[in-house]
Amino acid sequence: MKKANYEHVIDCLNKLKTKIGDEEGASFINYYVKNEAFTPKQLILVLRMLKRYNIPYTAFCFKLKIRRNREKLQFERLTDDEISLISKCLSPSQKKKLDLM
């Protein structure tokens, strides 16, 4: 299942790359390949672009990383709409830790 989720994200990012251009699209792909997750701000940007370009995606396949203080601070500064957008990407343990259950 994990491999299928990973491949789904890469497929979505490749489709997005055809819409936004090689340079920006490749940076998202490279970051995801290296980290297998996005920072809160990156994830919001990616999901908004997927919606804007009508690229279908499965939210729970996209992973969020909030390990570093910088990432935690990004998450704390999210609006309610932004949290709602990425909430389906959070693991149960992340939801519990962030008190979103």
Layout of helices and strands:
Layout (H helix, E strand, L loop, with lengths): L1 H19 L1 H14 L4 H13 L16 H8 L3 H7 L5 H6 L4
Helix pairs in contact: 1-2
Task: Kindly list the characteristics that best describe this protein.
single chain; mainly alpha; globular
Structural commentary:
The chain is mostly helical and 101 residues long. The chain has one domain (2-97). 66% of the residues lie in helices and 0% in strands. The chain contains six helices and no strands. Helix 1 (2-20) packs antiparallel against helix 2 (22-35). The longest helix has 19 residues, at 2-20. The mean pLDDT is 91.
Helix and strand succession? HHHHHH
The outline comes out as globular
Report the span from N to C terminus.
24 Å
Q: Nearest-angstrom radius of gyration? A: 13 Å
List segments where confidence is low: pLDDT < 50 over at least 5 consecutive residues: none
Number of helices: 6
| Main sheet summary | none
Arithmetic mean pLDDT: 91
Strand content: under 5%
Helicity range: 55-70%
**Got a strand count?**
0
